[in-house]
Write a structure and sequence with these properties.
Two copies of one chain form a homodimer. Chain A is an alpha+beta fold. Helix content of chain A is 38%, strand content 16%. The structure holds a DNA duplex.
DNA sequence: TTTGAGACTTAGGCTAGGCTAATGCCCTGT
DNA sequence: ACAGGGCATTAGCCTAGCCTAAGTCTCAAA
């Protein structure tokens, strides 16, 4: 006789709960991100974020509001119901735990984790996520500095200013990088602009020009407006303090 | 301003290659396992293994043979083409590396890894699998003793006998457990019947009765026919010789 | 040699999730 | 006050994958 067969492989569902599809999970995440500042998420914003056509969004919004995950005000936009918000936060927790795990435990670059996590978040079990979180010591922030929702579904809400909005003369801690573009992230890492670093704002050129900052180690960096808008900072009473 | 938005999240494909769907990947794996002993995989065997109705299989076989992944002889069955075999082995590598990683690095029980790997294998990138394999030191066998195909697509082929087929008086090494049922695996682990253990066949009851074996530590175990058929063994010239 | 059981395939339908084209709503600018 | 632009929705279509019901093939037993 030859080598043994592998197991029969019946399809494997995931959780109790209503069991969402990959697509639904993506839509919920989009709505969450788009409504985070309050207000409604519009059809076209969702469509753009998910790279689908607007009618696809309309159709999905109809289904999701029937299943009670979102509130749809026709021609206005949508918001998450508490149930939808819970599901969205669960996905975001998965995503950010995965990003953290891949960077800490498997040597991923912070620019590469997003794409990988984007696929895995739909396939991992709750159990696996909690094991990863445990192995990491229950991290509170992902590699980009974004807060990780708790297993209970709570997320830290902070008021952060972008570097572009911060007054010259202030000293800040770079808290979070609001981007997932690998090339930009790679560049930022090269420049030493990663979460946790302390920056003193030396100057800013007029007409949306670059901001000049000094790192703790004394080096200065010139940060263009496009990047400065992605660097979320928390003011500190530093030596140059305001 | 509030907390920063997460990135836009455009859908994320996986590899170069023709890009197979989850379903296709599952079908290819089934065909691989069913043809491993040579011959054709039949429609109904595939249907049973994947828990779908036979017509679904017929339909898929048609598509797969059009894309050149299988060879379909109507009313006879199917076999993998070299291309299909490559894809199947890639999936099996993913599956087995994942099982190994989950057990070694995240404390999973060998009975629980299958279901988790079954979902993840469709979502992981090649890169992630290779990082996991690397972190594990390029393992050659998964937790159940099944050989892991190499990244190049080669798999070890061994001729193993089940415990039920092995002659009384022989000494063998338990090489592989051909099962994925968590309850059975849990029981086997309790009994000390895990890959690598050495067993001496003391006796076997007639009429497909249980086999009695002695472990290295001297304990004896009574193994019923159902389980004995799942325990694949390699003979050794042990103290009790052949 | 024929026949019938059983396995396989074909026919026809369904859902999820996309798309384009056509239509409808809202609001701003004149 | 209303016309038009822009966004949202509806209509209608497509594919992947699944299903059941209805043929069709094969092969072994009579």
């Amino acid at each position: 006789m030859n080598a043994p067969p592998n197991p029969p492989a019946p399809p494997a569902p995931r959780a109790p709960e209503p069991q969402l599809t990959r697509s639904v999970e993506d839509y919920l995440k989009s709505v969450f991100h788009l409504t985070n500042q309050g207000g409604f998420a519009t059809t076209s914003d969702i469509a753009e974020m998910l790279a689908v056509a607007p009618p696809s969004v309309s159709g999905m919004m109809k289904r999701l509001s029937e299943t009670g995950l979102i509130e749809h005000v026709p021609y206005r936009g949508v918001q998450l119901t508490p149930q939808g918000r819970r599901a969205a936060l669960q996905m975001i927790r998965r995503h950010r735990i995965l990003e953290s795990y891949l960077t800490s435990k498997l040597g991923y670059d912070w620019g590469d984790v997003h794409v990988e996590a984007e696929r895995l978040e739909h396939a991992v079990s709750e159990k696996l996520i909690e094991r990863m979180a445990d192995a990491l010591g229950e991290p509170r922030y992902d590699p980009h500095g974004a807060p990780i929702p708790t297993a209970a579904g709570e997320i830290e809400e902070t008021e952060l200013l972008t570097l572009a909005e911060t007054a010259v003369g202030a000293t800040v801690i770079l808290q979070e990088v609001g981007d997932e573009n690998p090339a930009r992230l790679h560049y930022l890492a090269e420049q030493g602009l990663t979460p946790g670093v302390r920056l003193s704002l030396i100057d800013r050129q007029p007409f949306n020009g670059p901001t000049i900052v000094r790192l703790d180690e004394g080096m200065t960096r010139v940060v263009g407006q496009e990047l400065a808008l992605l660097l979320f900072c928390r003011p500190v009473g530093g030596p140059d303090g305001e």
